[in-house]
Every structure is written in C-alpha cells, then in structure tokens.
Design goal:
The chain has 275 residues and is an all-alpha fold. The chain has one domain (3-274). It has helices at residues 3-27, 32-45, 51-79, 85-109, 113-131, 145-162, 167-176, 181-204, 225-246, 251-274; strands at 219-220, 223-224.
Length: 275
C-alpha cells in the first residue's frame, strides 16, 4: 500500500472511531455496529481479503476496539449514576460464560453467514424498539434469576460472534422489562466491557485460524492491531461527549435514534452477505 492509500484508510478508520465513540457514549452500544461494517469494507475493498475471512477479522478487531471505548463510556455513565450495578454483579459470570461459548462457536464455524446474522439481528432489534418506542414495558421487573442468566448468556454469546458490545441486544431487552432507557444504556455500556475484554483476548490468541496472505500487516490471531491503533484514540475522546449528550436528550428520542442506526447498519450488512 502506498502512503496516500494508507492515509486514506487511516482517515476512514479514525472517522469511524470518532463516530462510534460518540454513539457508544450516547447509546451504550460499544461501537461495534459501526466498526464491523467499516472494517469489513476496508478489508474487502482495500486489502482484497476474502469476504468470509473479512467478516471474522472485522468482528474480532471490533472487539479489540471496543475495550477502551466501552471503558470510557462505562465510567462516564457510572459517574452519572446511569447504571444498575447490582444487575452487572449478578450477570457478570453468565456474561463471561456466554462470551466463551460464542467465541468457540465463531472460531469453528465463522464465515460469511455471520454478516447475514448480524444484519438480521440488527433489523429485528430495531423493529422491536421502534414499534415500542412509546409503548409500556412488557412488565415492570426482570424475570427470575435463571431466566436472567439465560438472557445474559444470549446477549454476550451473540454479541461476541457479531463483534458488537451488547447494547444492541441488551438495551431493547432491559427496556422491555421496565428499565429506564438512560439506565439501560449505561448498564449496556458495562455489559459491553464484559463482552469486549474476554472476547478480544480469545480472538487474539486464536492464531492461525484465518490463513490469508492478503490480511493487513500486524494482524495477530483474528485481530488487526493496526486498525485498533487508528480507531481507539478517537473513539475514546468522543465517548465522553456522547455520554454527556445522553443526559440532555428525551428517552423516546434516544430510542428512535438507536433504531435508525440499527436499521441502516443491518440493511448494509445483510446486503453484503447476499451479494
């Protein structure tokens, strides 16, 4: 890659990091819904990586990018008391178990179908949230502890497979059971941290599973560290701003912004899988 192309790619990644960081703070989504499509596009279009390998590297690299972004977002929401710390303590072992199972499944069966799954999950999640933006919750409390354990494993398992932070699934589920949207977003930021750290470490140690000479330099396991270095500084800076804006917006408006983002991303990823 010549210097001009490298600067163009670095600029695209930096811009995606800034945008994703802002959304991580604003909506508690960790940034994966932005990182995965952008990384997939760069890997396929610039580095000519095979699509079935590109989606795996994109999801793994997204998890690495989300660690600092989720950390900053999580701390900002914690200071603003926008977080259910009791739920995080109860769910933490089940979140980690879900990550381990999702990582194992993804490493054995990853491929282009992940892009289609990513798109379908986003479209279903956004449709549910958009249609219920002003609707009353299904119930005003979470289900029993065993059901909560299954919810936590479902959120973390699917999220690590898709390279997203958990907010895409956890925010709709938590608001469905009566949690205030702002607190659900802050709690989702913490959930994203439990997903990103073990998920990224697992993908980093899974060396050699994606053997493609077209992979970018400094790609270890399934994580492209070069992309992480371009994205992370900007995502961290903007995550704090997003968390501040979150406290100024109406909860219903937050839900609708969340839905529009998911619909656009879901359609793009589904189109990539079907083309």
């Amino acid at each position: 890659m010549d210097p001009a192309d490298f600067l163009s790619v670095a600029g695209i990644l930096a811009a995606s990091g800034a945008f994703a960081g802002f959304l991580a703070g604003l909506l508690g989504i960790g940034g994966g819904v932005i990182f995965v499509p952008v990384l997939y596009f760069v890997l396929v279009s610039v580095f000519e990586v095979l699509p079935e390998n590109a989606i795996v590297v994109a999801t793994a690299t997204s998890l690495g990018c989300m660690i600092p972004t989720s950390t900053v977002s999580c701390l900002s929401h914690y200071r603003a008391r926008n977080m259910d710390t009791g739920l995080i303590r109860r769910w933490s072992p089940w979140l980690i178990l879900g990550v381990l199972l999702g990582s194992l499944f993804s490493s054995r069966f990853g491929g282009l179908w992940l892009s289609a799954l990513f798109g379908c999950v986003l479209l279903l999640s956004s449709a549910n949230t958009l249609l219920r933006a002003k609707a009353p919750p299904l119930r005003n409390e979470l289900p029993s502890r065993p059901w909560q354990a299954l919810m936590a494993m479902f959120i973390s398992g699917f999220s690590v497979m898709l390279g997203i932070g958990g907010g895409t699934l956890s925010v709709p589920l938590l608001t469905l059971f009566g949690m205030d949207p702002r607190k659900a977003i802050g709690t989702a930021a913490a959930i994203g941290l439990f997903i990103a750290v073990p998920g990224a470490v697992g993908m980093l140690l899974a060396g050699g599973a994606v053997a493609d000479p077209s992979l970018p330099p400094f790609t270890y396991g399934r994580v492209c560290l070069l992309a992480v270095l371009c994205i992370v500084p900007f995502s961290m800076l903007l995550a704090v701003l997003g968390a501040r804006v979150n406290r100024m917006l109406d909860p219903v408006l937050l839900k609708r912004i969340f839905c529009v983002l998911l619909i656009l991303t879901g359609l793009k990823m589904l189109a990539n899988a079907l083309m």
